[in-house]
Amino acid sequence: MNWELIFGQIKWNSFVFSGAIENPSLSEFIASGAGFIAVLGALAAVILLTVKGWWVPLWRDWLTSVDHKKVGIMYIAIALVMFARAVIEAALIRAQQLSAYDGGGFLSADHFGQLFSTHGTIMIFFVAMPFITGLMNYVMPLQIGARDVSFPLLNAISLMLTMAGAILIMVSLVVGQFSTGGWSAYPPFTGIEFSPGEGVDYWIWAVSLGSIGSTLTGLNFAVTIYKKRCPGMTLFRMPLFCWTTLCTSILMIFAMAPLTAATIMLALDRYAGFHFFTNGDGGNMMNYANLFWLFGHPEVYILILPAFGVWSEVVATFASKRIYGYTSLVYATMCIAVLSFAVWLHHFFTMGQSANVNAVFGIATMVIGVPTGVKVYDWLLTMVGGRIRFTTPMLFHINFLLTFILGGMTGVLLANPGVDFQVHNTLFLVAHFHNMIIPGVLFGMFAAVQFWFPKVFGFRLHEGLGRASFWCFAPGFLLAFFPLYWLGMMGATRRTYMWSDPSYLPWLALAMAGAALILAGFALMVAQIVVSVRRREQLAAPLGDPWDGRALEWSIPSPPPEWNFAVLPQVTARDPFYEAKKAGIAYRSPAAYEDIEVPRNTATAPLIGLFACAWAFALVWHIWWLVVVSFVLMWVVVIVRSFQTDTEETVPAATVKAANEAFLAAARAAPGVARDREMTSENRGRALPEGLEGRSGPVSSRAPVEVLP
Amino acid sequence: MSLSERLHPGLNLAGTDPEGHEAAEEVLFGFWIFLMSDLVLFAVLFATYAAMSVQGIAGGPRPAEVFDLTAAFLETMLLLLSSFAFGFAMLEMKYRENRRRVLSWLLVTGVLGAAFVGMELHDYYVMITAHAAPPQASGFLSAYYLLTGTHALHVSSGLVWMAIMAVQVMVIGFSTPVKLRLMRLALFWHMLDVVWIGIFTFVYLFGVVS
């Protein structure tokens, strides 16, 4: 038995710490420091779990759970952990660029390349994707009045595959190097000829795992929406978040396959000497660009559409008004989803195709601005005449409208191939897509966390700290990215590791200040969560409806019971819960309760995730015995599961009845809180129905409350 | 809705119980969607092949020089016949629930499918040894092996799935989950036929003509 047979290509100097010993430099110390933080973080988690005795609850209540709500929470937890890493990397990128005048700077070129590659890969595949997936997981079934998704186990498997990818990318901090080929990993640079070693392989397998997980998620959610809506919930009565989830799911079903194909082809080039994207021998790297962006552009809309759904929910709730132009918002969403497949070529206008081809895709790209514009007007008009509460999610929403429009306009500029040739590959482009993704997707997710947190955990988040974090995030974003537009127009290329034009300096300094503000915003957000957990008694809103909500998820207790709805609701209109409150028929006891079947927890999904992670790691390091063993084990788990017949358990009607009647009684007895008192500890989650407040004039917070039977 | 409208075609569950059929529809609909996304994967591979079989020759052999139409035709027949046999297995399952007959038809399906995979591997062997056309030779051959190889891999995993289903029919019998799994396997198997028809037409026939 020799070393390579057992450990593949791992050597002692594969570990990041050896770099600092062999070749001491600031760049290596930072790499080692990051490795240490990853190792210490993992150790701290292990110690915490052991000391608190949380291993068993973690396994029993969370990892083996197939409940869509827990799966959703775990997705968002992954997203936040990965966000912490990638946002620190962003700050390092900014610091390097600030200090890199005439070859200065403190990072080696290779280290810098890894930083922007992991930053992009993580932010897209392991922050944005798990964030939206987690949110859709949690909220969508509640909004359509379902007890779970169509395939709960498949849902858990998607989560575990995504987690396996995230773990793999964290492992790359400690063992070996990551790719330096950017998040899009263009060959031939990422081919074996120019990027030997494990870096690109880490990218390939981490992304492939996430991609397969997302395909399964899309399938699952689309089927759920088509087949699991509660009685009366026609498609055009669904909340807009469900519509955007549906469109995103459809995009996932169609768009992830090209990515999987592209990563497999790149892997075959690298592992088996195929010639898909090589220089010469019939390879064609332009095909990679096509395949990657055939996924990559719909991906942009996979991310933004759920955020659009969040914005629609947020603006209607905090303007206390029915969403304006529901039908047009639905059609706009569908138009965007369809058009998103017709514009991928605008990512490589400069690749050499004819001007007519560029013109077609340029026009298609500009056309996408139309349905998006429709949406913006709808959101604006929703606010007109509404009684707006400037809560944290609403602040994010208003900031979104202002900045997203600017980003959209630079997008229309870039859609013009002539302009694109000028600013292609510059920081102008970097500014543009951050301008779309940060105020649109990321802040949308932050707003969603503020909005649905009380639903998920039964207590509100601390509002003051939330607003403080907003006031760091929003200007921080502007400072960090608007200078990049100027730099881009001055000719600064993206991913640049050093520069020599002194006029860049003030802009880079501004961008650095912005990055610092964003970091401060994130710190405040973490502080907000910590403080809120500590003060959960004061912030408690167990009665489920802290914001005078509109859709069905607000009609059940917070946190919701395992079975979501004691009795499946009957829906007769849009905004069903809001209408029920207005009509005085909310919180009524159902006529009868029935037994509820819920899926049992199972170790299937975490075991598949574990073996998938081992399989991918083994592939990265060419540990062939482990490749075979983990692959076989993965499928053994599936096969063993298929022989189990007792996969469901029954919650007796009496249990459901006791829990639900207790909740309904508490809700009916609660005095209800008016909107101008919703941020006080009076807000226990029973909203004073808007209809009873009167529609005009200031609302007295001491208005009489009629407790409805 | 009338009773017949609420029943899922091709299945007979728990004495034509409508609720069971409606639950089954959800499961099968999900599988249709899976097949659709799998077809997107094949579409991408076809598109790649279409580009590379023209532009990726790179001094290596051309399609017409390496393809054996007779073998491809026989493979087509094998796969179509195996689908035909699977159809009989499903009819037996729906109307008679006779284990022995269902298993026999599954065996026929499996043997034909295995013969298909065997012949395809033999094709690869001939291409590599007699024509010096391994996947590493050119972009065209890379794309050819990936497209047909992905299909062969699908057929092979279908065979493994079939073996497991045979065991489940023997051990568990025709419970609703087993019936639904067989139904899904049948859909999968037929989809692979459709993909193969595409491969036969676009790869082999076009390749030999051009």
UniProtKB/TrEMBL annotation, chain A:
Write down the membrane topology.
Answer: Multi-pass membrane protein
**What is its subcellular localisation?**
Cell membrane
Q: Which UniProt keywords apply?
A: Cell membrane, Copper, Electron transport, Heme, Iron, Membrane, Metal-binding, Respiratory chain, Transmembrane, Transmembrane helix, Transport
State which residue ranges cross the membrane. Answer: 29-51, 72-95, 115-139, 151-175, 202-226, 238-268, 288-311, 323-345, 357-374, 395-415, 427-453, 465-487, 507-531, 623-640
Classification via InterPro entries = Cyt_c_oxase-like_su1_dom (IPR023616), Cyt_c_oxase-like_su1_sf (IPR036927), Cyt_C_Oxase_1 (IPR000883), Cyt_c_Oxase_su1_BS (IPR023615)
Superkingdom, according to UniProt? Bacteria
| A Gene Ontology molecular function term of the record | cytochrome bo3 ubiquinol oxidase activity
Q: Name one Pfam family in it.
A: COX1
List all Basic and acidic residues biased stretches. Answer: 674-687
One GO biological-process annotation of the entry reads: electron transport coupled proton transport
What is stated as this protein's family in its record?
Answer: Belongs to the heme-copper respiratory oxidase family.
Q: What is this protein called?
A: Cytochrome ubiquinol oxidase subunit I
Gene that specifies this protein: cyoB
From TrEMBL, chain B:
Q: Where are the transmembrane segments?
A: 27-51, 71-90, 102-119, 159-176, 188-209
- What's the family? Belongs to the cytochrome c oxidase subunit 3 family.
InterPro entries (alphabetical) = Cyt_c/ubiquinol_Oxase_su3 (IPR024791), Cyt_c_oxidase-like_su3 (IPR000298), Cyt_c_oxidase_su3-like_sf (IPR035973), Cyt_c_oxidase_su3_a-hlx (IPR013833)
Supply the alphabetized keyword list: Cell membrane, Membrane, Transmembrane, Transmembrane helix
Cellular localization per UniProt: Cell membrane
Q: Quick one: a GO biological-process term for this protein?
A: aerobic electron transport chain
Q: Which GO terms describe its molecular function?
A: cytochrome-c oxidase activity
**What's the source species' lineage?**
Bacteria, Pseudomonadati, Pseudomonadota, Alphaproteobacteria, Hyphomicrobiales
Its name, as the record gives it, is Cytochrome bo(3) ubiquinol oxidase subunit 3
